[in-house]
Write a structure and sequence with these properties.
Strand order of the largest sheet: 5-4-6-2-7-8-3-9
Number of strands: 12
Length: 757
């Protein structure tokens, strides 16, 4: 089979896309979804187990709270509230946590820890995927079932002040909103003031049931200054005063209602030691979650320590608190302390609704759901619950009733925990088989491209793939049979659902045929390349060309760096690998330059440099030769030498000193900007220069650097280009001075800068 260069390239691209698609389908598993298409209207709730005609508990329980205020502080790490900073800067919140009517939790946010996926997790109870990192830049509307959609369908009025991401995710859900942008990270004052300015008026009104306040200032401070910045303490104090004002207003409104109000203080994600977020470090995934309500009054001596929960648990809790159906796609469980003060029958009713919802989700996403421990625990709990209901209807109060109710409650809580964990693992489980098939296809295409490049680059190139020869045909059919046998074995023995196994046999067989054909093409190209190489060696005889030491070093360094990216520790500290490789390369280059200049290509002493630039021969036999030095060559056997005399004065010494200058600059850069997870918090020269006390030194260094750039570039420029370059560099300095990074010569200190700001 012969293919032209265009057809060959197009075929490779199509097959490569197919392989990448298979790999991504396995790497980004399908989220747990309900098969129900109803988004805004839920089906009838599950009745109490074995509820007789005398029982009227077949409807949703009434709401537990009259109003709910969600105060979301972006990047609210758990230790900002429960640690020393909380004690120092958030005294009112600390009082509520330790002695007030509240329940405290450390909510774990699953990666990716960025704002948009976290908001979806809080409202839907589902686990967003890594593809939502890209969607975070332009958030599409949420189509999944969620708390806000259920609240709107129930006629509840929702108000939002804060991050405009909510408006993009839930359009037409808010009767009133004022969105703020989250991408001006240098603004940590006005972005929060635009939220707080609405509080006094909205808290005095009674025309809403859900109020969402999303503050971005703390996250912006983290991005610009890090968690150790003194600005963090001031922002936490500001948030504490806002919480106190909101809580006092909610308590005042309760006097005229029969239901208490609920204030939720939470964070969407944490903050790393460098101030960023998005990964899975403990500082990034652990967030504070506090539920505050007069319904949670504690008795004297009642100590409540923060309990570790999942962030997805908030969706089910808010739904129960507002008297709404739990979102269909939620994998979270009810935060039981919220309903712990209710009667036993109500507690069991809430737990039963949550376990029924999770069990339905399990049945729709796990084929072997009957074998799952969580489903078995649910069935046992439901059976015990039915027995408790019959006993309750017969005699309303007895010790047997209480003991059985406690047992049913404990069984429900165990089932909830197991079901939630099973569904969460289903979302995070990679489809290894699809990933392996996609990787094999991609690697085969890459190998075929690499082996065919010398011929495929020609305009008349043709690739000969002898699929119809006896050897290739035998290899093709043997490989196809083996792959089909592997496919049958994997698909019949897999416990969980697999995307590649769910394909039709025609599609799966086509992919296996493609893999077998690609293998034959790779073997054919390898065979032809080895024959050509053997023929070339025979024609040229013994070749003296070989790779130089620098070329080997660059190749090994590149391969080593690529291999190091397979470990997360090396990814986080990738700069250390670059520091080592650059330093090693500079030393090897220095050795190569000096050996070539002073010893010559054959390793014998060739010339000696004097201060006046003369190069004297070291041996009389070399006097008739051109006293040259191959200063810049990497492979001496196939490159013409460059005479040292051709490099006059400063240029010659610059060549010899360049490796050492590069090493010095690299060392300076290491101290200029500390980076990486382990070293970003350490003080460096960059911290010293950017501090307000050393702004004059930074100004001098900036002006000197811009002057050096102008001096190096202007020599080969026309007069007009020189003027344009000078004005451009001057504009750079003026911009930095205008935003307060550096000083103008006539400015005395930071006071003038503050006036400009």
């Amino acid at each position: 089979m012969r293919l032209g260069s265009g057809a060959f390239a197009a075929t490779c691209v199509v097959i490569e896309v197919l392989g990448v698609a298979l790999f991504l389908r396995g790497f980004f598993p399908a989220p747990v979804r309900s098969s129900s298409r109803a988004q805004h209207r839920a089906g009838p709730p599950a009745p109490e187990p074995l509820a007789g005609a005398s029982s009227n508990w077949t409807k949703l329980p009434p709401p537990l709270f009259s109003k709910v205020v969600i105060m979301l502080i972006d990047a609210l790490r758990d230790d900002f509230v429960f640690g020393s900073k909380g004690v120092k800067f958030m005294p009112y919140t600390t009082y509520l946590v330790e002695k007030g009517a509240s329940h405290s939790f450390v909510a774990e946010a699953k990666p990716p820890t960025v704002t948009m996926p976290r908001i979806k997790a809080l409202m839907t109870g589902s686990l967003p995927g890594f593809v939502d990192i890209i969607r975070n830049l332009n958030s599409p509307a949420v189509l999944e079932d969620n708390v806000l959609t259920q609240a709107k369908a129930a006629g509840k009025r929702i108000i939002l002040y804060g991050d405009e991401t909510w408006v993009k995710l839930f359009p037409e859900h808010f009767v009133e909103y004022d969105g703020t942008t989250s991408f001006f990270v240098s603004d940590y004052t006005e972005v929060d003031d635009n939220v707080t300015r609405h509080l006094d008026s909205v808290l005095q009104r009674g025309d809403w049931e859900v109020l969402i306040l999303h503050y971005l200032g703390l996250d912006h401070i983290g991005h610009t200054s890090g968690p150790s910045s003194p600005l963090v303490g001031r922002k936490l104090s500001e948030m504490d005063s806002i919480l106190m004002k909101t809580h006092a207003a909610l308590l005042a409104q309760e006097r005229g209602t029969h239901l208490p109000n609920l204030l939720v203080l939470c964070g969407d994600h944490g903050m790393s030691e460098t101030g960023g977020h998005g990964a899975s470090s403990m500082e990034e995934v652990n967030t504070a979650l506090i539920l505050i309500s007069s319904a949670f009054e504690r008795k004297p001596g009642d100590v409540r320590h923060p309990v570790h929960v999942q962030q997805t648990d908030l969706a089910a809790t808010l739904a129960i608190g507002l008297g709404l159906p739990i979102p269909k796609h939620s994998v979270g469980s009810l935060l039981f302390p919220v309903v712990q003060g209710k009667a036993m029958r109500e507690q069991l009713r809430f737990l039963h609704l949550n376990t029924v919802q999770l069990s339905k989700l399990l049945q729709e996403n796990v084929p072997s759901y009957k074998k799952e421990p969580g489903f078995e625990q649910f069935k046992m709990s439901e059976k015990l619950h039915g027995n408790w209901i019959r006993l309750y209807l017969e005699e309303n109060n007895s010790e047997v009733l209480f003991n059985l109710g406690t047992k049913v409650r404990r069984q429900y809580l165990d089932a909830l925990r197991t079901l939630s964990l099973t569904l969460s693992r289903q979302v995070a489980q990679y489809n290894i088989y699809s990933m392996v098939v996609g990787t094999v296809v991609v690697l085969e295409v890459l190998a075929l491209l690499l082996l065919s490049v010398p011929r495929a680059l020609s305009s008349r190139a043709q690739l000969d793939v002898p699929l119809w020869s006896p050897v290739s045909s035998l290899l093709f059919y043997l490989m196809l049979l083996v792959l089909l046998a592997v496919h049958v074995t994997v698909c019949t023995s897999a416990e969980n659902s697999c995307y590649f196994c769910s394909l039709s046999w025609l599609a799966a067989g086509g992919v296996m045929t493609l893999i077998s054909a690609l293998l034959c093409a790779v073997v054919s190209a390898l065979t032809e390349m080895s024959v050509d190489a053997k023929r070339l060696r025979t024609n040229l005889g013994h070749s003296k060309s070989r790779w130089s030491e620098l070329e080997l070093l660059i190749l090994l360094g590149t391969l080593g760096h690529a291999a190091s990216l397979g470990a997360s520790s090396f990814v986080e500290e990738e700069h250390q690998t670059w520091y080592f490789l650059v330093s090693t390369l500079c030393l090897a280059l220095c050795h190569e330059v000096y050996r070539t200049c002073f010893l010559g290509a054959d390793g014998e002493p060739q010339c000696c440099l004097h201060a006046d630039g003369r190069c004297d021969s070291a041996e009389p036999a070399l006097q008739d030769r051109n006293p040259g030095c191959d200063v810049l060559e990497l492979g001496q056997a196939h490159k013409s030498p460059v005479s040292l005399d051709a490099l006059r004065g400063r240029d010659r010494w610059l060549v010899l000193a360049s490796p050492w200058l590069t090493l010095a600059c690299c060392r300076l850069l290491r101290t200029l900007n500390q980076t990486g997870v382990q070293g970003a918090h350490r003080p460096g020269l960059g911290h010293w220069l950017t501090s307000s006390d050393h702004k004059a030194a930074l100004s001098v260094l900036a002006a000197l650097s811009l002057s050096v750039i102008l001096a190096l570039v202007q020599r080969r420029c026309s007069p007009a280009s020189k003027v344009a370059m000078a004005l451009g560099l001057l504009g750079v300095y003026c911009y930095r001075a205008a935003i307060g990074n550096v000083l103008f010569p006539w400015q005395q200190g930071n006071k003038d800068i503050s006036k400009l700001a």
